[in-house]
Amino acid sequence: MKSRPPLPDDPDRPGRIELFTFYYLGFNPDGEYRWANAHHVGRYYRVSSDAVLRWLEELDLDPKRMLHQQFDLSSHQVDLQLEAPDLTPAEIYRRASAILEELDAAPGGRKPWEENG
Description:
This protein has one domain. Helix content is 50%, strand content 0%. The protein contains six helices and no strands. The longest helix has 17 residues. 17% of the residues are buried.
């Protein structure tokens, strides 16, 4: 059974860390890595990809916002993928939680490659 706090409007909806870990880092709640998009996440939770995108927005994980954070998410993704075989699902979630905290604290704005464009 998954350990996530129930949300008033949808008790089966994943929490913020779980959704971040699955959608952005590629680790499903069972700790298995697999590249995922809204369709894959939706299939896992038996909802539409539109529902997943709505969840992302409601949990302040909207892909548009993430794109404008001054944060190197891809290096964290790779590091976690390399370490994952030695981690339990709970340890993966602890690492994902720390990554999300860093991402939330990162300044927003234009990416370095957009500065001259």
